[in-house]
Automatic annotation (TrEMBL):
Domain of life according to the entry: Eukaryota
Protein name: K Homology domain-containing protein
UniProt keyword list: Coiled coil, Repeat, RNA-binding
PANTHER family: DODECA-SATELLITE-BINDING PROTEIN 1, ISOFORM A, SCP160
Coiled-coil intervals: 405-432
GO molecular function list: RNA binding
GO cellular component annotations of the record: cytoplasm
Pfam family, one: KH_11
Annotated spans, Disordered: 1-171, 854-878
UniProt key word Membrane: no
PROSITE patterns: KH_TYPE_1 (PS50084)
Native organism: Friedmanniomyces endolithicus
Record lineage: Eukaryota, Fungi, Dikarya, Ascomycota, Pezizomycotina
Biased composition annotated in UniProt, kind: Basic and acidic residues: 22-35
Length: 1323
């Protein structure tokens, strides 16, 4: 039988009579191929083993099944009439055959044909779960099953998971240009880091330069997370490009019924060509296989899809949708049924619908969305006299029917009949109710819609959160509306409310209480802290700018708990934690990116950046230097030390932001006259300009005011606006004006044509897959390129045409240099050389720019091409022969590396497995894969861990595969078995311990907890304590303590905790009456005495605070309490005392700011009081008069001049002090201690009496102070000794600061003269 292929819908004519002719009756004529649509059949393609099963796209633009007759592209449509005229005028001229391998030998690696997977459909493929209640609004009341192929039809490698912040139906609105989406690339699907052309950061930087979106990445245990921010299209294109560079190309085979093949191909290949063009995937169907299996009704043919992961999944979904529409089971969406009727259709007492579901059974599955909150379309107005109402269908909330075709048709008809009846019976009523009570009517915090309907026969429709309406809509029969209204009032009245005056706590806020409340609300909303509180307490919190917040809960107790938790959260966020900064909106985007994250990591300050339309300042909030993901919201007032840390960090963060703004010139805006016809080219020019900017420079904001389809009348309007720093705007403006001028000049030269010889055998290389290469060159060189019959014609500006010609001729020279090597490699090593998903093969081909052909038998590994035009010749390739073809230098390098890899695999082919518990896999892998990487680096073995989707055995265990040298495999197996044994011995215990004992178990700074763990044989690492013993954080979490670890350790810890609790419960409490002035004797410096007493007697001592009345409380075991009490009474009993009279004017001189009292207490255990008298006020210290603005002595260069050019003042030291005496009562443990204290006091009084004068010596030049001090203080110490005066030289040496001399008048003047003498001798 002749072999023919259909590639992307193109096919050749088969003149023979075979079973395939019946299949070809659907094709009226051959497909008219165009140059840009030709497939590059030999481009490198990946193996199917790495093709991810991507989630269904949320893009509504591509959900619909492709039409059988899709519209042509603009380029193809423009060429169609010309081609028809040519074919009519000269029928003898042969048409370009895009199936010809000779005409279009593609570059790169060969394609491969994957092994056919089991059929993805059955008699009932559209698995839609039965309706069930209790789901949130906008979702269906059942779980939909995928219509995709079974697991065996998709690779077992990674799953690329997108997570988008794009608004879903009814979701929050996002501003243009601020779309955010993230995808996760599993590590096993990615090209190994060492095999990438560039590091990940550089690859993403290159993508960002070419894109209007910003693509960033971060590591996660499941894979590499790529996050894009920017315009929707730019984000998706950027993510797709980044994923393509980091991941392997994918290839899957989708088995379809042979009878559906014609539907997939379409008339003249229109359907399959449309799918290929829209998704960018290469789609091949083998006609030979279809013809052979055509007689069998259950026969299947394989549709091979190749390309990047996104394109493959999109094409696969479209093909499977076509299959589902034309098989015995169908999926149907009823978009014409108003959602207001859904509760009536799904009511439990709906006999006809229930009978229909019971009759059809598994043949029919119905999925009806639950509708109790409208999103975009509000219900109609209430009619007069409760007349029937006409509702408008909502296409975004359809009813899903799936199953046998007839069953779906019957269900559809029954639904439509019931809807017609409901249209004559149903009305609506609307009532206004406070918004914060809505959620307690129906939904997660209220009753279920099913229960409400069962009791009232009506449904309820609430307004969404983004709408300010208070109207609740009741839908139902007129005679049941009143009953439903009463139930709504009952539900709302049962709700309790509490008031939280948040602003009252911050009445003294520097910017005002309301301003702080606004700042705090912005931050808590961004952090979703209020939403977390609402979920925790099943309540609703309604903040407002006045600071008087309302809390709504189902009962009063819950409301009180929610209020207490809220107030704790508020108290942890005082004004000292916040700092607003006015920042121009130009910097907002920059602060949302890496700069904001850097400030968070460096200073522990989170930035709350307003939206583009919000003129609020940027808010700085101190969080701490813990990682943002691990941050826990504070719930208590910060200490003074913490406040100081807040302020310092906020000031540093604010300074960083100000430095960023100060480093740029003034922000300006400028309009540029840019004809709309040049907008596309201007965009590309601006992108290139901004990509060339230095790293870290903020690009100028560019706004294109006119649309790309602007007419000529708008050509001279200023429709491009630039905004940014003055110098950046000027540079881009100059570049744009020069570019526009050049484009205008080029328009005048578009008629220039350049024709030259181009080898026809390289034409397909020039064109590329579906014209990709030729279109890229046209855009790069800004010329039109046509190639035909060995001639290449360039049309455009002369300089650009010549540059393009040079490039094309250099490409020809490169293609002329080609070599072929045939390598004999045993077949068992082919899979290793190809790599997972063909990654190794693609790396070799990309690195050396060659094509590597493995034998056709390796199709499962991604090395061959299904439907390849060279399949006949490829089938003759020996099973142990690998062919390398490409430029001589690259082919030689690829050959040598293949042989080196072969030798490596021969040396490292030992393998083994280890059985571990499936629940141990996360700990075995570790955070971010660190534990697994450590095992691999330590042993040198390759360790493959099954993913979470792999089913475990009946015993809950899975197999970990090891591979490498014998020594490395044995070492890895030994380590994993040890970890597995330890994990298997791990148990978890929960102890219910009264929360009042939790703090005692933990101990001060965790000392008790650490002792309990270490004494039980646990780890001595603080980071492991929280893993082993977990305490509840809040009252809502209960009182259970969770202990996890090895059995023996856990049992000992539980025993220790229980013993400690039992000991605490058996404690006794006693009180010791101690005079308040003696409490400090029990406390000591920094609480040292109390800690020593507690440790010595094993008790807890509670001493009343200063100003509080009461006895000292002692708690502990009875015998310990008794001993401690006796000791306390002993050390605090009345001591012997002695009174001395001290002149009031010398009181503060002797006390020396309390230092004298502390010395007596520490050295002699002697305390001092004043018999109830109040100490005198502290006299003011004299200051030099000349330092307060008077003229200073002139500065000279001669040090000796200081002696004559100086300022001197002399004052009496205690002239302003009080007269009289104050008693000093000395109390001590013994007469000896009192005698020693009295002696010290007498000496201090004598010294104080001598200090009767103070002098100030001001020198013109502070540098002369060093002469007064001398080397090592020798000069100043000598003067002090000789004069008996105390001399203080200022440390900061500020001009005008005086040298202070205290002592007797004669001593002070003697010291002055000595200092001046030193200065005279200094020269």
């Amino acid at each position: 039988m002749a072999t023919e292929s259909a590639v992307n819908g193109t096919s050749a004519t088969n003149d023979g009579t075979s079973a395939a002719e019946r299949l070809m009756k659907q094709h009226d004529e051959d497909h008219h191929a165009y140059v840009e649509e030709a497939d590059d059949e030999d481009a490198p393609h990946p193996a199917p083993s790495a093709a991810p099963s991507l989630p269904v796209s949320g893009d509504p633009s591509r959900v619909a099944t492709p039409s059988a007759e899709p519209a042509m592209s603009a380029k193809a449509a423009g060429k169609q009439p010309v081609r028809e005229e040519q074919s009519t005028a000269g029928a003898s001229k042969p048409r370009l055959d895009t199936n010809s391998e000779d005409a279009f030998p593609a570059l790169g690696a060969p394609k491969s044909q994957a092994t056919a997977a089991p059929t993805p459909w059955s008699r009932k493929p559209a698995a839609v779960a039965k309706a069930a209640g209790g789901m949130s609004n906008g979702t269906t009341n059942g779980k939909a099953q995928s219509n995709a192929s079974s697991r065996s039809g998709t690779p077992a490698s990674g799953m690329m998971t997108p997570a988008s912040t794009a608004p879903s139906q009814g979701g929050a609105m996002h501003l243009p240009g601020r779309y955010k989406e993230a995808i996760t690339l599993p590590y096993q699907m990615m090209t190994p880091r060492g095999q990438l052309k560039k590091p990940v950061m550089e690859l993403l930087r290159d993508v960002n330069k070419r894109s209007k979106a910003t693509i960033t990445h971060r590591e996660s245990p499941s894979g590499l997370i790529l996050e894009g921010i920017g315009p929707v299209d730019a984000v998706r294109v950027g993510l797709k490009e980044a994923a393509n560079q980091l991941c392997s190309d994918q290839k899957v085979q989708v088995p379809v019924p042979a009878s559906i093949r014609g539907r997939i191909v379409g008339k003249q290949g229109a359907t399959i060509q449309a799918i290929s063009k829209r998704t960018g995937a290469r789609i091949n169907i083998s006609r030979q296989e279809a013809a052979e299996l055509l007689e069998d009704d259950d026969a299947t043919v394989n549709v091979t899809i190749e390309g990047d992961p996104f394109a493959v999944q999109m094409a696969k979904q479209d093909i499977e949708k076509i299959v589902a529409e034309h098989t015995s089971t169908i999926n149907s969406k009823l978009k014409h049924i108003p959602a207001e009727y859904y509760p009536f259709l799904m009511a439990q007492d709906n006999a006809r619908m229930n009978a229909l579901r019971q009759q059809q059974g598994k043949n029919l599955k119905m999925q009806v969305p639950q509708y109790h909150t409208w999103n975009q379309q509000a219900p109609p107005e209430a009619p007069a006299n409760r007349q029937p109402v006409s509702f408008t269908p909502q296409a975004d909330l359809p009813i899903h029917l799936s199953g046998d075709r007839q069953a779906v048709a019957d269900a559809r008809a029954e639904i439509e009949r019931q809807v017609q009846e409901l249209q004559r019976q149903i009305t609506l009523e609307q009532l206004a109710m406070e918004r914060n009570r809505h959620q307690f009517i129906v939904g997660e915090m209220g009753t279920s819609l099913q229960d409400f309907f069962a009791k009232t026969g009506c449904s309820v429709i609430l307004p969404p959160d983004h709408d300010d309406s208070e109207m609740i809509t009741i839908v139902g029969p007129p005679d049941r509306i009143e009953e439903a209204t009463n139930m709504i009032y009952d539900l709302a009245a049962a709700m309790q409310s509490a008031n939280a005056d948040v602003a009252r706590q911050f009445a003294n806020a520097p910017r005002g209480a309301q301003a702080h409340v606004r700042d705090m609300t912005r931050y808590l909303r961004q952090r979703e802290a209020l939403s977390q509180l609402e979920r925790t307490h099943n309540s609703r919190i309604a903040p407002n700018e006045s600071g008087n917040w309302q809390i709504y809960s189902p009962d009063q107790k819950t409301a009180m708990k929610a209020r207490a938790d809220l107030m704790n959260l508020v108290s942890g966020h005082p004004p000292t934690r916040f700092q607003p900064v006015d920042v121009d909106s130009f910097y907002h985007e920059h602060l949302r990116g890496d700069t904001g994250r850097q400030i968070r990591d460096t200073h522990g300050v989170r930035l709350v950046v307003p939206d583009d339309l919000d003129d609020s300042p940027v808010l700085l909030v101190y969080e701490g230097r813990d990682p943002s993901a691990d941050y826990e919201m504070p719930r208590k007032q910060p200490s003074a030390q913490e406040v100081q840390a807040f302020q310092q960090a906020l000031q540093e963060a604010q300074q960083d932001i100000l430095n960023l703004m100060n480093g740029h010139q003034e922000i300006v805006s400028k309009d540029v006259d840019a004809p709309a016809k040049f907008h596309d080219k201007i965009r590309r020019h601006v992108d290139k300009h901004q990509q060339s900017l230095p790293q870290g420079q903020i690009p100028v904001q560019v706004n294109y005011g006119g649309s790309r389809q602007a007419t000529q009348t708008q050509a001279h309007a200023p429709n491009v606006q630039l905004r940014g720093p003055q110098d950046f705007v000027d540079a881009l403006n100059a570049s744009m004006l020069a570019f526009i001028e050049q484009e205008k000049q080029d328009e005048l030269e578009r008629g220039f044509t350049l024709t030259f010889d181009y080898p026809q055998k390289y034409a397909s290389h020039l064109i590329g897959q579906r014209g990709a290469n030729i279109n890229r060159l046209r855009e790069e060189f800004d010329v039109d390129i046509q190639v035909d019959d060995g001639k290449c014609t360039l049309k455009g500006p002369e300089a650009k045409a010549n540059a393009c010609k040079k490039h094309l001729l250099e490409m020809v020279k490169k293609l002329d240099d080609e070599a072929t090597h045939q390598l004999t490699i045993p077949q068992q090593y082919h899979k290793d050389l190809i790599g997972s998903g063909g990654a190794q093969l693609r790396r070799l081909q990309d690195r050396y720019d060659v094509r590597v052909d493995f034998p056709r038998k390796q199709a499962d590994d991604g090395a061959s091409d299904a439907g390849d035009a060279k399949a006949g010749r490829r089938s003759q390739q020996a099973s142990n022969v690998v062919i390398v073809k490409g430029p001589t230098r690259g082919a030689d390098g690829c050959r040598d590396e293949l042989l080196s890899l072969l030798q490596y695999f021969k040396d490292n082919s030992h393998s083994d497995t280890v059985s571990v518990s499936q629940s141990q896999l996360p700990s075995l892998i570790g955070a971010g894969g660190k534990e697994m990487e450590s095992l691999r680096s330590e042993t040198g073995a390759q360790i493959d861990v099954p993913n979470a989707r792999d089913a475990a055995g009946s015993d809950g265990r899975v197999e970990v595969k090891l591979r490498g040298s014998k020594q490395s495999v044995e070492a890895a197996k030994k380590l994993i078995q040890a970890k597995s044994k330890e994990f298997d011995d791990t148990i978890t215990r929960n102890l219910d311990v009264d929360r009042r004992y939790h703090r005692i178990i933990i101990g001060q700074q965790g000392t008790n907890l650490r002792n309990i763990i270490t004494q039980a044989g646990g780890p001595d690492e603080p980071r492991m304590y929280n893993r082993m013993i977990r305490f509840p954080k809040t009252d809502a979490d209960g009182s259970n303590i969770r202990i996890e670890g090895q059995r023996a350790v856990v049992e000992q810890i539980c025993a220790a905790i229980e013993a400690l609790v039992q000991q605490q419960e058996s404690q006794a409490t006693d009180h010791a009456d101690v005079q308040q002035e003696k409490h400090r004797m029990l406390i000591g410096k920094g609480g040292e005495v109390r800690r020593q007493l507690e440790q010595r007697f094993n008790v807890s001592i509670n001493i009343p605070r200063q100003g509080e009345q009461g006895a000292v409380r002692i708690a502990g075991q009875p015998e310990d309490v008794e001993k401690c009490k006796a000791h306390i009474l002993e050390i605090t009993k009345d001591q012997e005392g002695e009174t001395m009279a001290v002149p009031r004017r010398f009181h503060h001189t002797v006390a020396n700011n309390g230092q004298f009292f502390r010395n007596l207490r520490n050295n002699h255990q002697v305390t001092v009081d004043h018999a109830g008298q109040r100490p005198p006020a502290k006299p003011s210290t004299p200051t030099p008069n000349r330092a307060a603005g008077a003229a200073m002595p002139l500065i000279t260069d001669d040090p000796s001049a200081e002696a004559d050019n100086h300022h001197w003042e002399l004052h009496e030291f205690n002239s302003s002090a009080e007269d009289g005496e104050i008693p000093w009562v000395l109390s001590g443990p013994s007469p000896e201690a009192l005698a020693a204290a009295r002696s010290k006091l007498e000496r201090a009084l004598q010294e104080a009496q001598k200090q009767d004068s103070i002098g100030f010596l001001i020198l013109p030049d502070p540098r002369a102070h060093r002469h007064v001090i001398g080397q090592g203080g020798s000069v100043i110490n000598r003067i002090r000794k000789e004069s008996g005066a105390n001399i203080q030289v200022p440390k900061d040496q500020t001009r005008g600061e005086a040298i202070q001399i205290t002592g007797t008048k004669d001593g002070v003047e003697s010291a002055r003269d000595a200092i001046l003498e030193v200065l005279r001798n200094a020269s």
